[in-house]
Amino acid sequence: MNNGHVYVEFRFCPHLLSNTIFEINGAKLGIYGEKIRSEEHVTPTDVLETVLNASKEAERLYPLIKTRFIMCALWPFTQWTQELVDYCKEYRDRGVVGLDIAGDPGQASEEEWQRVIDGFNNARDSNINITVHAGECQGADSCTQVD
User: How far is it, in rounded angstroms, from Cα 112 to Cα 92?
Assistant: First the structure.
């Protein structure tokens, strides 16, 4: 039954929309290693807060549209996985509804795999919805694990 409501889920990684991804010796660096001046800092949290505030305002203006957000963990940026899980927990009442992972894990190290496994186990234990994209980069045969 079409009652005029629209439900949309956006998946994104707020880290990729920020400009202060890394900090080395107190210097904030962008994703390409460029130094960011202090007045230009936009953190992943800033990005997420802005998106959620805009969504709330859009839903106020257009009450038939509901927007929700999935935090997207990425290969090879597995160091962000736990932070994304934390965002899922902290912002679950503001529209963050799940966690997924995307990209090609083909060259991932054991350490990177462990960060993803630990993060997703934490998400599962915290009742966070999970989506895992399997086989998207290496085909269906890559979805089978033989011990």
Answer: 26
